[in-house]
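Quick check before the chapter quiz. The format below is the same one you will see on the exam, so make sure you can read both the input and the output lines.
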Amino acid sequence: MKSIQIIKSDGSKQRYKRRKLIKSLINSGVKRDLADKIAKEIEQRLSGETITSSALYQLAYDLVKERSFGLHLNYNLKTALFRLGPTGYPFEKFVASVLSSYGYSVETDVVLQGSCVSHEIDVLAEKKDKVFFVESKFHNSASSKTNVKTTLYIYARYLDLTENSENTNRWYGKALNPWIFTNTKFTQDAVKYALCKGFRLTSWNYPEKNNLAKIIERKFLHPITIFSDIDEFVFQQAFAKGVVTLKDFVDKPDLAQEVFADKYVSLKLQVQSLLSSFSSPV
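Here is the expected output.
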């Protein structure tokens, strides 16, 4: 096989790596033998060619869709998160829904007074003896990362909030903490600073055991934007009615049927197929 060159989202080039493609397929729930077959077919089709990473992804997605009905939804997760744009508002609602599914009491679009100025908090999340001031950083491109400037700002905001006695009295006896979610990645300095100051970061691939992809898949919290043939207007209606994730789609059938209308039955079949492919479904 002649080498395949991949053009990444930032414009740089790298050689195609079978191991990396197979890993992404397996992470989405594809069995190893099927992942091997898909990788071999892609290599045969693209031998000696140059292709963008997004086009390679699309080809792999189409092959998964042909061979394993339902699993293609899982493989489409990263794209589904980007479809929550172009503004950050739907991502905020999605993060709140994810945290709620993990047992947090959540409020969105909260304004709190700090010692110096007031601050808008994307998601206020509370669980047991901890309260989190959650910032949701949405990016429209995979090449965009959340950098150390954001972590510096979020920590400064946290300090201003905790220096106001109204906040510490409101949550007396509870630990107040900042937390940043992003749909892409953090820079190394952003991670280093957060680790130094002791607050949480959650991105597509960080931290390793509880990154965004894994906490979504673990509880079937894929955003409804995973459905590739639904337009943005319908998605906005679904968000307004509280149907934000596929778990919501399953748990709120009356609302889902109202929003998706004549497409509801076919979407339900896709969701059921994906559920059956999970080793430990919700």
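If your answer matched, good. Strands lie at 5-7, 13-15, 50-52, 105-113, 118-127, 130-137, 145-146, 175-182, 185-186, 200-202.
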